[in-house]
Write the structure tokens for this entry.
Amino acid sequence: MHIMRVSVIGGGYVGLVTGACFASRNAEVTIIDCDPKKVAAINRKEPPIYEEGLLEILNDCVGVTLSASHSYDSIPDADLIYICVGTPEGADGSADLSYIRQAVTDAGRRMQESRKYQVLVVKSTVPPGTVQNIVKPAVLAASGKREEEIGFGMNPEFLREGRAVHDFLNPDRIVLGADGDDAYSRMASLYESFDVMKIRTSPAAAEMIKYTANAFLATKISFSNEIGNICKQLGLDVYEVMSAVGHDSRIGPLFLNAGAGFGGSCFPKDVMALVHLATAAGVDPIILKAVLAVNENQPGRMIRLLQERCGDLAGKRIAVLGLAFKDNTDDIRESRAIPAIQLLKDAGAYVTAYDPMAATAMSEVFPDIEYCRTAAAALSHADGALIMTEWPEFCTLSEEFSLMRRQIIIDGRHMVTGPGVEGVCW
Ligand code: UDX
């Protein structure tokens, strides 16, 4: 088997995991990143982010099949060039493609030096048409090459943070959007050792598949939240309802957990980008807008439930348990704890907060709330508490609640039972 040479542009969470996993499957990988600290850390076998299994791969592969660099010197020799730079949310909600444009132009300039057929693949989440209408012309212009000398592809990722290495190495399917047979064969041979269904599409369809998958998962969550809001009004537990509903194989049991709503670097941003591109295409995305609206409302519902039991929150001591957007990460991007804390502050509450990993990150958003080292310390003398993140350790909380001045607990993640506990949707 010919060993593939892969240059991965962007050493963030997607690029690093992609590069490391390809390197662990015998490709020769260079990760290119402009941050010298990140490059040095990778070359020292120190993962700049926490991902289960990543350290082991860096230990095995750095210096053998994996290296990092701030230069584009590996590009001329690469068989495949993977673009893994960020596509943040622009001011109007559309995907900001400026990093993509920069990366593919820089790559194109160095591809000029190559004598062989190369394939440039976008892994970043980009709107349908980006590879064909933006990336391809930019690379051809920068490289001065003819169309048949470069193949183009789109290979979306479906990785969950914290489980990204596992998800990369054990995918449900691999989507390969290719602009021709040669580009497809090159991408398929990179994934040769993956014994799983490979779906060939056009680049634009692959781009749409990524948005659609995320939008559907976000829809399942908002749908469960809406059913949960109805169930609560009727005195029912949405978890009992959804666990039976999820046994229908047409529906499936996953992503039906009602509660505080979804956060993270993908769902809110990608659904928003899809709303934006639907509107630009002349379609009113009724369901997608509702998905976002339900999600925005859930933290406010939790505060209202708290107010119903605590009364006016001004001067009250309220504990917020969980700051990360989900468990097992220190990532707070779009965490539902952010609007919840903001609403508590607006109402004049004194906020104490606890998270096993994310307190430092949150202290940059809210420097003026009290961060505690344990859940017990945050709960001590509190007039009320909110549970915002599904950290497994919260399931074992019980005695700690007796430290509160009044035992009023609004659970946003279905973690605890007992006196004074009320769920947001159950
Ligand atoms: C998600 C997708 O799962 C992944 O395929 C995509 O590539 C990136 O976005 P991630 O953001 O890492 O991954 O986290 P995920 O585990 O999917 O959870 C996202 C958010 O939804 C979290 O805030 C979580 O608390 C919430 N969630 C998840 C629910 O509220 N209910 C659920 O049933 C599942």
Remarks:
- The two ends are 56 Å apart (CA to CA).
- The longest strand covers residues 5-9.
